[in-house]
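Narrative progress, year one. The postdoctoral researcher (J.K.) led the effort to move from monomer predictions toward full complexes, under supervision of the PI. The following entry was the first complex the group processed end to end, covering 578 residues in total.
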Amino acid sequence: MTLEFSSEAFKKFQETVSRYPKKEAAMIPVLYLAQREFGYLSPEAIEYVAKLMDLSSARVYGVVTFYTMLNMQPVGKYHIQVCRTLPCALVGAEKIAALVKSKLGIQVGETTPDGKFTLSEVECLASCGTGPMMQINDDYYENLTQEKVEEILKSLK
Amino acid sequence: MEKVLLRNIDVPDSHTLAVYKSRGGYRAFEQVLRGMSPEKLIEEVKASGLRGRGGAGFPTGMKWSFVPKDSPKPKYVICNADESEPGTFKDRLLIEKDPHAVIEGTILAAYAIQSHTAFIYIRGELVFGSKVLQGAIDEAAQAGYLGKNILGSGYDLELILHRGAGAYICGEETGLLSSLEGGRGWPKVKPPFPATHGLFGCPTVVNNVETLATLPWIIDQGAARYAAIGTEKSKGTKLFSVSGHIRKPGVYEVEMGYPFKRFLEEDCGGVPNGRKLKGVIPGGSSMPVLRADELEPVRMDYESMQAAGSMLGSGGVIVMDDSTCMVQAAWNVARFYAHESCGQCTPCREGCHWMEKIFRRIESGEGEKGDLDLVLNISGNITGNTICPFGDAAAWPAAAFIKKYRAEFEAHITQKRCVVI
């Protein structure tokens, strides 16, 4: 099945492109749009974006593989990203990651069988004064403790 | 000390136009529109002595003056909000709490070089910050500070918020340009510099969030007042983000030249839990670590930090107490750079991973004699041999950790375990 934007997403695509001095500059926003539409950036999605942007698939693929927030694999409903960089590591990031792993029964880079949670370890998220911290989808969770993590995981339905 | 940058953040609803205006916001821009020429504006910023707060410390007014006035090409201003340097979270605070100061600063920079399209390139993870900024941009446009014929002056400016997608290197100004041009965030060879050949080959100024957010105060209060703060060569105030083993982590506004030791002990409350200070990275993880016994003469300005063998950088202060294993810290930092190297230049692409592997094996008790000199050798061969400063940023901390804590690294290798209790 060939992928295609919904008419609403297509309108958004046209609006986005029209704001930039050159069409190519809208690459990341358009890829975000595609990721939201299709869930992740499959080879078919990349090909579709390339066609929309008048660029080669190779060029778009090169961009997608460069950025950590552009996913080429499906991710769970909740994408848990635990910061592992020095400031967070100094205040116990490793314990937070270990707790999430044991609670969800998955390793870093894995998704739970029900497709609900994906766990990643990520580099600095500019939240060093309030570490340890993690990002779940769009939201930051800061000053984490074991109890807080357990509560947060429980609250995610 | 009078606050320049954090003057608004504790006021309720500081992110709204109404509150920003009630605190004197957009007064600077209105004053400029009433009759300050772009040339005069550039002179004023030069006179203030303001230097870029992203890490390099280049004089802001001078950077602007390199933009050709007679270019037939469009000119661009980009606010660099891709804050990703480990230990740094000051721009995030400004974006979330005082977005209009960032916007007004961007408008002033755009007016100075007569640009009609400006961008704020914000790191993708800052979703909340993006929402706050977009809300503020919309408010500013509605009030007539953005768009066509701003406040009847005939000056046009469009401001576009652009979200990155997770790549540290896009905080490097030419990496940012490549990213905004729709490509991988690969830095470009300089010269030519962005001032003449920037976004899509057009004259472009890229300034950090903190740099831009300082501008409204400078124009409103006068360059002389700003230049009176700080030291002879490091003017004004600077934001420092403090993290790690410290009683009161957070963002602090400090007058340049303030004693570093006093800052850590008095302002930030010192190291908690009865522990002792072991070392501190003063300017984000790219900068060489300083041992506790080196801090006495250090002051918080560009020159003093450099004299101490480190750099002010982005002002990301990472504090480590005596429970910290420096091998583990060095490995953590090396892993960051190995993960973030863009892969363009061989010394950095290969060297970062090589250093990370060596630190990892020392950390896991499998270090070999000669490993430390090998890291120093690799570090030396990366330094200065890459297109952008990322190579140095990865090489410096690796070498500094070994030089400053060599005995601990050697003990780790010979005893095949961590020696820190």
